[in-house]
Amino acid sequence: MASHYAIDKTLTVNDLRFHYRDWGGRGWPLLLLHGLASTSHIWDLVAPLLVEDAKVIAPDMRGHGQSDKPEGGYEFKTIAGDVVGILEALKMKHPVIVGHSWGAMLGLWIAANRADFLGGLVMVDGGLVDMGKQMSWAQTLERLSPPKLDGIPVEEFRVRIIERTPQGLLTPAVEAAILSNFEIDTENRIHPRLPLANHEQILRSMWEQRVAEQFEKVACPTLILPVRWKEKDDPARLALKEQGAAQAEELIADVEVTWLEDTIHDVPIQKPHMLAEHIQRFLRERL
Known about the structure:
This protein has 287 residues and is α/β, with parallel strands linked by helices. The chain has a single domain (7-146, 194-285), classed as Alpha/Beta hydrolase fold, catalytic domain (Rossmann fold). It contains eleven helices and twelve strands. The protein has helices at residues 76-89, 102-113, 131-134, 137-144, 154-164, 172-179, 196-208, 211-215, 235-251, 267-270, 272-285; strands at residues 7-13, 16-25, 28-33, 54-59, 96-100, 120-124, 182-184, 190-192, 222-225, 227-228, 255-257, 260-261. An eight-stranded mixed β-sheet has the order 1-2-4-3-5-6-9-11, with helices on both faces. Strands 7-8 form a two-stranded antiparallel ribbon. Strands 10-12 form a two-stranded parallel ribbon. α1 (76-89) packs across α2 and α4 crosses α7 (196-208). The two termini are 22 Å apart.
């Protein structure tokens, strides 16, 4: 029976324990992949909207959330092996992967390198730009390293969230999804769940990734959902994303690009209904 509530479960793949959230559902096997330094909870508002069309699972990837945190293995090939192992353990055949941000890059890598494995791919605001061609490794570290939040009080962090969140967005469910990225100690201070050294390993793999080379190898139906907010986006960064989307349209054999307008990068928690509608349409019309 389809459920609006997730059951938290664990399984062991590649000698690591993975936490995942299972909403049940019926239809296509659907795996939701979170972004860098995020967790499966980023999908808490979207997943319940999909259970009439799909069997919905969202794992915490290695190093993230409540899953194990080894010191190594953060390149795309190894983490893709984790994803494939999870799907095989759960007997999810010809699944659709929906990836957000880094999760979109990971889904792209799997679609390109395991062409016989996926039934479809949805890339949500990620996987379109070659970071290594746009900036040096030093610049990447400077711009994309996580903010220094380790040890700050929860209430101080909440103030920062309120200051940076569009008006009306910060519901209890959204706050819970954001706070899931951190452990809270007995003194009510936060600590990122993803260790900095592991964060930097993932950044390096993203910096080294060449997305255009992956585009050419993707055979499954693909939906690309980049976001833009022209009044607020940095024009140079938006231009790079638009160029990447055009390149994907040219190189991926079966692809549709639909821009999500006037929204932020974390669209799964800002406009979950809009995002879910696009995913549902893809499942119903393209597969």
